[in-house]
Amino acid sequence: MKSLPAIASLLFLIFVLLLCFPPASPCEEAAFKVLETEGNAAGAGSDQARARTEAVRDALKKAVGQVAGQWLSPQDAAKNNQLLKEHLYNRAEEFIQDYRIVSERNADVYTLSVRSTVFEAGIRNKLLGLGLLKPLPPSLPVARFSLTIREIRDYNGYVRCREILKEGGLGIRGAVLREASWGLARFDIAATEKMAVVVERLREKLSLEIHHQDDRVLEVSLK
C-alpha cells in the first residue's frame, strides 16, 4: 500500500497538470473551421469536367452557408437570401483556405464530398459589414500581474485557491499556474479590474496577509 505522503504527492501532481493545461474555453472563437459537405451537379454524362467543377462549387457554397448559419436564424437567412447569395454563396471560394475531395460518384447527377477549411472569421466580418450581425461589445481592458500565494498547508488549500480564482465576481478573467511547490503557488493573472479591487474581493474569500503589492506583482500568504 502506498504511504499517505506518496498519495498526497500524486494528487498534487494531478492538480498541477490540470491547472497547467486547462481545456480551451468554449468562448474562444476559431479563425477557421473544417467541414465536410456534399456537392451535386446535373448532366454529368454530357460534360464530366464541368459537372465536377460545379459539384465542387456547390459543396463549397454549402460549407460557407453552414458557417454563416451559426449566426443567422433560418428566417433571417431566407429573408436575406439574395444578399447572402451575392456576397457569400456566389463568392464562396474567397472564404475557403483549402479543400480536398473525399469521395465522388459519377452518375446522372455528379455527387462528391468535399472537406474544406473555411475562413470563419472572414464570414463573420462579412455578415457584420452587410448589417446582418450586431458587433460584439468592446472588450474590457485587461490588467496582467503575478499572484504568489504562500502558506498553503495542504492539497485542499491548493484546490480552494484554484476554485476561488475561477469564480466569477473577482474581476479575474483568467489564472494560469506558473509555479507550484508545497506551500506556494504562483499564478499569472488577467483581470478586468484594478489590482486593489481584486485584492479586496480576494479578502472576502480568503484570510490573507499582503507582503508585496504593486502594478505587476501581488504576494500574499494565507493566515
Task: Show the helix and strand layout.
Layout: H1 4-20, E1 32-42, H2 48-68, H3 74-79, H4 81-87, E2 96-106, E3 109-119, H5 120-129, E4 143-150, H6 155-166, E5 172-181, E6 184-191, H7 195-205, E7 208-213, E8 217-222
Mean pLDDT: 83
Structural class: alpha+beta
The CATH topology name of the largest domain reads Dodecin subunit-like
Q: Output the helix-strand order.
A: HEHHHEEHEHEEHEE
Looking at CATH, the homologous superfamily of the largest domain is FlgT, N-terminal domain
Biggest sheet architecture: 5 strands, mixed
CATH class of the largest domain: Alpha Beta
Global Rg: 27 Å
For the termini, the CA-CA separation is 34 Å
Judging from the principal axes of the Cα atoms, what is the shape? elongated
Q: Helical segment tally?
A: 7
User: In what order do the strands lie side by side in the largest sheet?
Assistant: 5-6-4-8-7
Which bin fits the share of residues in helices?
25-40%
User: In the CATH hierarchy, what is the architecture of the largest domain at level 2?
Assistant: 2-Layer Sandwich
Compute the number of structural domains. 2
Low-confidence parts lasting 5 or more residues at pLDDT below 50? 17-29
Q: How many E-type strands?
A: 8
